[in-house]
Specification:
Layout: H1 2-38, E1 44-45, E2 50-51, H2 60-64, H3 67-78, H4 83-96, E3 101-102, E4 105-107, E5 113-115, H5 122-138, E6 143-149, H6 152-155, H7 169-179, E7 184-187, H8 190-195, H9 211-221, E8 234-243, H10 246-251, E9 258-265, E10 272-276, E11 279-283, E12 308-313, E13 320-325, H11 333-336, E14 342-346, H12 355-362, E15 366-372, H13 373-378, H14 381-387
Pfam family, one: DHHW
Protein name: AlgX/AlgJ SGNH hydrolase-like domain-containing protein
Length: 389
């Protein structure tokens, strides 16, 4: 009898425990829902360094083609209560089970985060190359070169997780060289970067190369760019040791910090003034110290990306360089400044003017296409600018 009463008591206790757990779970769900309703929408995620989805406006067409439901799902995901906390918890759980790929980012040796190179968009790549060839034909008197920089995952294969697949950007480089007309020289710095792969030529937390990587790249490219008297000695200034870049934000892994350096050539007398489409006032420095107080400290170079940047120097050699670029150029161009009378940078993603008029009005003598491989193979804004579309 006593045994029977004991079993009955334990059954009731278990039932009460299950009921309490159910109520707690329901209360937690209701609390999260209420918090989600009360909490104002965030416009920007500092953690992920991107714009968040806001509440979509319904429309007959968007509801019919299911765009509204997709947008609503994106909104729910972006505005979820304590989203950053859940992302960090997920990353920790994934690490415990041995996972080394987070949201398209590899976690490699020595805490290196490396973006997984995406495949080639054949249509966009072909459009870019055809537009470059046509631009060359229309400006046959100009010296033209292309510098396409391989990404970290390809250069630093030894740092990747065991068995991690990576796109062969060497084959991509061969394809680009084959498709370019003879009047455009392709500068391949792959082997140079590989020789220095252990020297911090890419950031651990960001998708860009570092100033050190750009310095090696410049040294390898200078001859083909017909730059004479290249400086080999630099004074290196560390401007921050607390940089957490785009890949840390994208992956949710925040266990490493990067150092951002600025290279100043020694024993070279030169001055310059710079302006851009967002700030037409000419200033004597390309560095934006205010960016060091922001999340994206890579923007210390030129204050980030602009439709057009114009650098006028005291060099009187009358060489005027036009650069079509992505953000990889931002830490590379400082090495070019002493060797040209003027450098104009165009970011095709934001530029909508006629480049042929610019070439004529500015008396351009040299052209450089400077992109990282991933961008060049997938973004066709360069083709749009070169063809005037």
């Amino acid at each position: 009898m006593e045994l029977k009463r004991g079993k009955e008591r334990r059954r009731k206790e278990n039932k009460n425990l299950h009921r309490s757990m159910a109520w707690c779970f329901a209360g937690l769900v209701l609390l999260l829902v209420a918090a989600g309703i009360i909490q104002p929408d965030k416009k920007i995620s500092d953690e992920e360094n991107r714009v968040l989805t806001t509440f979509p406006k319904p429309g007959i067409e968007t509801i019919k083609n299911k765009e509204y439901m997709t947008a609503l799902e994106d909104y729910s995901s972006d505005q979820f209560v304590l989203r950053d906390l859940w992302i960090r918890l997920k990353v920790r759980c994934d690490l415990l089970i041995g996972k080394r790929e987070f949201n398209g980012v590899y976690l490699g040796k020595k805490k290196y985060l490396m973006q997984i190179p995406v495949g080639m968009d054949e249509k966009n790549t072909e459009e870019n190359l055809e537009a470059m060839n046509r631009f060359r034909q229309a400006n046959s008197d100009l010296k033209m070169n292309a510098l396409i920089v391989p990404n970290a995952a390809y250069i630093m294969k030894d740092y990747l997780p065991l068995g991690a697949p990576v796109r062969d950007q060497g084959e991509d480089m061969k394809y680009i060289k084959k498709q370019l007309s003879g009047g455009i020289g392709l500068i391949d710095i792959t082997e140079t970067l590989r020789k220095h792969a252990d020297e911090g030529i890419y950031y651990k937390t960001d998708h860009h190369w570092t100033s050190r990587g750009a310095a090696y790249g410049f040294g390898a490219a200078a001859k083909q760019l017909e730059i004479e008297g290249v400086v080999s000695d630099y004074k290196i200034h560390t401007v921050t040791t607390d940089f957490s870049g785009t890949l840390a934000s994208k992956s949710g892994y925040h266990k490493a910090k990067d150092t951002v350096e600025v290279y100043q050539p020694e024993n070279v007398e030169y001055q310059y003034l710079v302006s851009d489409s967002d700030n037409e006032e000419r200033r004597p420095t390309i560095y934006d110290r205010k960016a060091l107080e922001e999340k994206d400290k890579y923007q210390v170079f030129f204050g980030g990306n602009h439709a057009i940047v114009d650098i006028v120097t005291t060099n009187d050699n009358q060489r005027r360089l036009l650069i079509f670029k992505d953000s990889y150029a931002n830490c590379f161009v400082p090495f070019l400044i002493p060797y040209y009378s003027e450098i104009i940078m165009i970011d095709a993603r934001y530029y909508y003017e006629n480049v042929h008029t610019l070439v004529e009005n500015k008396g351009i003598t040299d052209v450089l296409f400077l992109y990282n491989m991933d961008t060049f193979l997938n973004d066709n804004s360069l083709a749009d600018v070169l063809t005037g579309e």
